[in-house]
Amino acid sequence: MFRADIALVGFGHVGRRFALLLDECRNHLINEHQLDCRIVGIATRRHGSVFEASGIDARELARSMDHQMLGANVSAADLIAKLAASDAGLRVMAETTPLCIRDGQPAIAHVEAALDAECDVITANKGPVAFAYRRLRDLAERRGVSFLFEGAVMDGIPIFNLVRETLPGVTIAGFRGIVNTTTQHVMMALERGQPFEEALGRMQQRGIAEADPSLDLDGWDAAAKAAALANVLMDADLTPHAVERDAVGPDATDAAQTAMSRGRRLRVVVSAARNGAAVDAVVRLTELDSQDLLATLPNTANALILATDLLDEVAVCQMAGDLTQTAYGLLSDLITLRRRAVRQMQS
Ligand SMILES: NC(=O)c1ccc[n+]([C@@H]2O[C@H](COP(=O)([O-])OP(=O)(O)OC[C@H]3O[C@@H](n4cnc5c(N)ncnc54)[C@H](OP(=O)(O)O)[C@@H]3O)[C@@H](O)[C@H]2O)c1
Questions:
Q1: Which of 42, 145, 146, 189 lies deepest, with the highest CB count within 10 Å?
Q2: 154: phi > 0 → left, psi -120 to 50 → alpha, else beta; which?
Q3: In Å, how far are 10, 84, 210, 258, 323 from 104, measured between CA atoms?
Q4: Cα 41 to ligand 1 centre (Å)
């Protein structure tokens, strides 16, 4: 049996769902992957932190966190240093703090500290990959560990895995997609004459809109996803600030309804294309033909269409995203780490 010690930096919606999923999948991980996972530490911002080298009952904490503070305050840096001292076969830091759209911090510092200490990193946070992908990838390579982030874009739907594992020899020339559920829902409501505030309110009520909805409406969430996708799939060196953005507000109603009356659809589309040696990425309010796959998506669906050199266009759709899918992104990263360890032992 192979042991993985896991430190959770961030224990909010995603971190807690991941802790519960690890417990739900315990038998599968042991039987199919000979992987025995132990959560050894948790760091949060206001709820305290905890480290216990022999493992903690994170399941119980995940259920009771709303009412309870964790123990003494161990900083994220201390937690990572303690994780690094473990003798487990895999030492994994799972980063799920909120995205800071200004500079991607403190998540980048957390990831950097863990990689530097020769721990593997899995994250659902877009920040590190959208702001500092090359630096972190190179650091991971130098330290002989992995930096994985499948949950960062379209939750657990495999995008990065798809290209890395199943499209060998294929070059991604560009992409276009709908990757922000809140603005997708708002645009569909506006074209049907429904009020902007009500549509946004529904997304807030369902916990889909960001805590600060301007991150969705001003295109920042989509820009971070576009930068992450371009950096990883096209070897770009972008940050979200290099991605031009259109905002969505009540003033988009006329254009959405005019497009609708002509049998077309106005949608928030992210896209990227090569421009010489550089890559340009944009978030644009775009009028689509009604037959376009992106125009036919139902209410809260997302989709990404990859333009490739050898397979023409490859599309991936996410019909509905939720916390379990995001937590699954982290779980799939964990299994990738285990598979890499097996390959290393065999070589
Ligand atoms: N929610 C989703 O559906 C979803 C989907 C895909 C990706 N994501 C990404 O996943 C990440 C987590 O999302 P979430 O919904 O779980 O956020 P959340 O509920 O706000 O939880 C964030 C957690 O991070 C902790 N934290 C904040 N700053 C910290 C710091 N400096 N050091 C240590 N811990 C810190 C918070 O501590 P306190 O509890 O003390 O505040 C909290 O436990 C975000 O980057 C988000 O963009 C989320």
A1: 42
A2: left
A3: 15, 23, 16, 38, 21
A4: 16
Per-residue pLDDT tens over the stretch 72-118: 778 999 999 999 999 999 999 999 999 999 999 999 999 999 999 99
* pLDDT reported for residue 32: 97
Q: Which two tokens stand for residue 274?
A: 């090569």
Residue 313's identity, in one-letter code, is: E
Nearest atom in ligand 1 to the alpha carbon of residue 15 is: 16
Atom of ligand 1 nearest to the CA of 329: 6
Confidence (pTM): 0.96
On whether the CB atoms of residues 126 and 99 are closer than 8 A, the answer is: yes
Mutate to test the pocket of ligand 1, among 8, 13, 20, 323 (most ligand atoms within 8 A of CB): 13
Strand bridging mode 2-9 / 35-43: parallel
**160: amino acid identity, one letter:** F
CA distance 95 to 60: 20
Region 165-181: mean pLDDT is 96
